[in-house]
Amino acid sequence: MILLVISSIICLQAYEIDVNTFSNYLDVHNRHLHLEWLLNMDKKYINATSVYTFQVVGPQINKISLDIYKLNIYSTYLTNGLLLPHTIDSPYADSDQGQRLNIQLDRTYYRGEYIELSIKYSIDSKSRSISFMTKEQTSTKTMPYLFSQCEDANCRALAPLQDTPAIKQTYTATIIFKDTEAADVFMSANESQDQFLILNKPQDEPNFNWKYKYFIQEVPIPSYLIAIVAGNIEKKKTSTGGRTYLISEPDKIVPYADELKDMEQFLLAIEDYIGPYTWGTYTLVIQPPSFPIGGMENPLLTFANPSIMTGKGTGLSVTIHEMAHSWFGNTITCVNWANMWINEGFTVFLERKASFTHYNSTDDIKLNAIIGNTSMYQDMLGYGLNSNFSSLHPDTTGLNPDDSFSEIPYEKGFQFLTYLEQIVGQDDFKQMLRAYLDQYKYQSIDQKEFQNFLLRYLQEQDVKDFSTKRYKILENWDKWVYNPGLPPVILDFSTNKLTEAQEYCDGYIRADGQQPTNWQDYDNFLQTQKLIFLEDLYKKAENNLLKLNVVDQIDKDLKLTQENDFELKFRWFRAILTAGDKNRLTQVAEFLGQIGRGKMVYPVYRALNQLDHEFAVQTFQTHEAFYHPIARNNIRNILGLRDSFIQ
Ligand code: BES
Ligand code: ZN
């Protein structure tokens, strides 16, 4: 009995461990990180020093282990100057997770003690997180460009770190750069009014000036949220009086700011549901087109792919999504990548609540849920309906957690929360989420903790029918989280807008190369209906029901090959390539050189590879230098080429 009580106390406190870090983070916790980086943008090289404030949280330690990935480590030392010996090993033969840096301490340190140490190292173009671009690869072609992408486990390629979402630290940074190589530099932090001591003064060289920028992030954040961007970039307020800003190369900043003039309203719509935004300002960086994903929620400095700028505002849900991460992901964080839905599922849920407030229509939300469900199901089929990667709790032991990345934490997570909301009631659920944020802000948690909180909250609030609700919540909980494949309860998101879009697609198939009478309905469709139409077209193509005369007629009517909204364009190309269309290969190849966003190029490469492997490889080779290293590697895998990060 006593044992049971003790073990239940332990269980209540201990969160799940992170299998994707080599660090001894359960024994020692980094509280603050300082980075000093000297950028050599032309030479694709960063000379770096990192300074840590570790606190012992286990009983005692005599070494500190950190995650690294292809970093050049020069020396490790206590900040009082004492050199500490270090070794590097790879616990897994396959180095995809990187290596472990072991630093031998000068003595045993005990619980509560602090250890201040520094590492001198460098980052080069082998880095998996920093993308070094030449000036030719930018839009203004005047300066080189550099940006980072750390989620999920790529921060170890930026600095030796406890690369786990379980550990949160504050950070400061000094960035030193040449005025000829970057107009400005920004990080996922505020610019600091105070200057920091320069640890390595750069040597004077003629023809340029060194510039210094100082940053401070006072909120403890997980290491995957550290971010930097440098190049010919500038910052502009998006609307008067608001908190939102935009950063991009100067040539596009005016039209971008125009399309983003509602950013402050998005923030207000989210706050309306979930409570105040606590980070201060909000800045969106529109990155070069090779940015490998749609958006990344770096605190104070979201990064986004330019494909979200369609000229018509149709790509802006990505902005709402990344903003929503300021609460879910950046304030409360998943404790390991198996619990990613604690970030992404909650964020999609909040994103859809805010779009409802902003656009005041349920149709778009339902259609997005349906589109999301379709992509989720495709991902599940890809992994196998019985694979635990098709569950809300993937096991990535020994793997790069990126391997389990899919729509599942987003959409199954969203559906699970919608299901719980239906049990709890909309208003109580909203209040619960606000209380949850307050309780766990600046912490990292697992799904079991969320369950404990939810039940405790409902009980404490004495909600109506508590015991029935408790029973219903627990009834399917573990099935939602651990069972692979489709959710245990199927939710209904149907709307007549869905049938309208599906019937429109059927109409084209039936017309067999003629123009259907209602062909102009497309102009009045919601963007989400257009997406449904194109998803359906792809399904037809997969079932050999999309004939080339129909492809030609659709293109003649709807001009999809010339479409500027890449969400529509990539789905169009995927459908017609699957249908066997070889008449638009030039335009497909051109598209694949305009954008490097994985979600858009991978499906097109897959379809192109099936249709014409040679042409797919040739297209890839033409654009290889343009892609981000992560995208490059994934495309190589799709085409069955050698898998490597060699540049
Ligand atoms: N946090 C993710 C991006 C991410 C997840 C990067 C996992 C690496 C690993 C970001 O918030 C995101 O979800 N971006 C989406 C767009 C969003 C609207 C669903 C994307 O990039 O497509
Ligand atoms: Zn997200």
UniProtKB/TrEMBL annotation:
Q: Which GO terms describe its biological process?
A: proteolysis
Please identify the protein, giving its name as recorded. Peptidase M1 leukotriene A4 hydrolase/aminopeptidase C-terminal domain-containing protein
Going by the UniProt record, its keywords in alphabetical order are:
Hydrolase, Metal-binding, Metalloprotease, Protease, Zinc
Does the record carry Hydrolase as a key word? yes
**GO CC terms:** cytosol
Q: How is the cofactor bound?
A: Binds 1 zinc ion per subunit.
Give start and end of each Peptidase M1 leukotriene A4 hydrolase/aminopeptidase C-terminal domain: 496-639
Highest taxon in the source lineage: Eukaryota
**CDD domains assigned:** M1_LTA4H
Spell out the family assignment given in the record's similarity comment: Belongs to the peptidase M1 family.
Q: Name the positions where a peptide binds.
A: Q149, C150, E151, P292, I293, G294, G295, M296, E297, R597, G598, K599
GO molecular function annotation: metallopeptidase activity; zinc ion binding
Q: Where does Zn(2+) bind?
A: H321, H325, E344
**Named cofactor requirement(s):** Zn(2+)
**TM region(s), chain numbering:** none
Q: Which species is the source of this protein?
A: Paramecium sonneborni
